[in-house]
Queue: 3 jobs
Job 1
Amino acid sequence: MNNYFNPNSVYTEEDFKHRFRMRRHVFECLLRDVPQVNPYFRQKLDRTGRLGFSPYQKVTIALRMMAYGSPANSMDETHSMYESTCLNTLQQFCDTIVQVHKDEYLREPNQEDLNRFLRKAEDRGFPGMIGSLDCMH
């Protein structure tokens, strides 16, 4: 928390972007949206009566595993979260992101999208190319 999320955090915005592979405001949007949609990300008491992992910890774990390809068992050493909990957190995070953002980002492109893609490809020297899926032809 002191390193990244407090007002006088140790690391700069650029450090945050480098470590999390996104800008802080994107992370904060995820942190706001994910716990609202999925109760798994809300901090609760565990079976021993202690506070469980915070939304910051759970979202950070999921993003680190995706951004760096970190195995779940490596999170135990750095974040004190067991492998099974990490895997469950990653699954819950991915399912929630799809649920929240599928209509905007996970849909078939419409004509406006295709025109934008074609313009962007043309600007990069690939006129008439929307994308190459197999790179074989």
Job 2
Amino acid sequence: MSDAGEEWQVARRRKGAARKSNLHQVSLNSTRCQEQLDIGKTIKRIRDTLSELRCEEFWQEWKEQLLCAASAAPSEKEDTDTVTDQPGRSRDGRSRQQLECVCYGLGSFSSCVSARYQLAMLMLLLDAGQIPLKDCSVYDPAFSSGERDVLRELGLTVLTENEEGKRLVTKPTLFYLMHCGKALYNNLLWKNWSARCLPLMIIIGNSFSGMRDRTIERELKRDYSYITQAVPVCEETQLPCPSRLIDVFSDTAVITFPASGLNRLPQSTWAEPPEPQYQHCPDLEIIQREAQS
């Protein structure tokens, strides 16, 4: 890393706290620097970072855990009431459907080294999971117009609408949510709160059990009820992180929702889940879309 010393001073941040304290400032900084963003140079830096990560020992474990989770994911046409005995195959023996990918909250990767490492890791995961670049949708309100151009040049699909995480899945989907706020995870769970949709999701992001342990119990139950309910029925595999990248990849897990566990819950669990409102969260760790006038 040629300019590591200076950049790490900018990038260092406590895990989970960055999005809350820097959301608006990052957006302003991105707007100011978009005019002088060198797209070619930025892409080269991303690819150099990707090559660096590919040589890291911990990357192999990330790759193996993604492939393991992907092999167990059902297709959207498969009956999720039963668990198959053949990983990577549906009940009729056919290969499982190709994953799609959604990435929220990446941050300003042209000015923040942590975000650039996270983008490079995303690219590696897409390659490992054989997910076409065009099938990966990315969004962050902090992206400058230059950064959106970089992402399109890389081949990714840049979303134009702030979905606030409220995306309904209809096929196996990898969600890459690095150091995002609890509200975004909670919104995603709410939108897919059914025994049919949850098993279609693979999340690479902050550990749900870690969120539970760091949050006052009554506040988690009141404000983030879907995370609260998901903790006992999801499966988490903690991903390794070298000490020098602790601010980039700490507290990251692969999270899945096996149908076998969901089907043991009472049907009342899924009855008309109310949309989260966050009335008691003045410091909400998410940029919400502007209300329509």
Job 3
Amino acid sequence: MLAVFDKSVGKCPEALQSPHSESVCALKDGFLAQHFSSVHPGAVTINLGSAGVVAYSIDKQNPLLPRLFAVMDDMFCLFQGHIENVAHLKQQYGLNKTANEVIIVMEAYRTLRDRGPYPADKVVRDFHGKYAFILYDSSSKAAFIAADADGSVPFFWGTDSEGHLVLSDDAETAKKGCGKSFAPFPKGCFFTTSGGLRSFEHPLNELKPVPRVDSSGQVCGATFKVDEESSRKETGMPRVGSAANWSQNY
């Protein structure tokens, strides 16, 4: 799976941007999407206009960590892996028996966006399993991205030469678009358009970047660790009306 988002949708943390990076513009002339399609024959690519692009393929997938893709009500969601407590989540969100993981993620996001009954970190923490997902809501131009607490699914992110946020389960694709400004997506974390990167395991703690150094001694992106000495003042996302965008209220 692949997603490239404009800075208005996903502002990449500055710590990911390596001063020695030789990255390109991932969106120019569909560069990275075309590369992804050449590596994964039969890939489906969706142009999101000024917001960016997403691409999906079932090529070369791990049968234990299958990929899913769905479009529903202006939401686009890429999901890889599996959720163990599917039955419980279906009941919680009032979904029918045929709903799978990608539908559950979309419904969970919709509930957050429209009603905000729980903090966002709790919603992601309730997903028990091995997974990584990328959701884009074109109605509010917002992204919702997460990876499980064990980092079970290969999942990478970074920034291209223009500051666009790049995400992929393919390390080589991420390197192609980001040069040295890429890293594994932090496990146990989620990213939103307005809230940035946060830990869903330790939602009250800040995340601090730790520089990654390659074999030549050059800094290439960063990993993010929970700062045990820090604590956020905000404890969660306030309830909002159905007409409000939850992502702008926490």
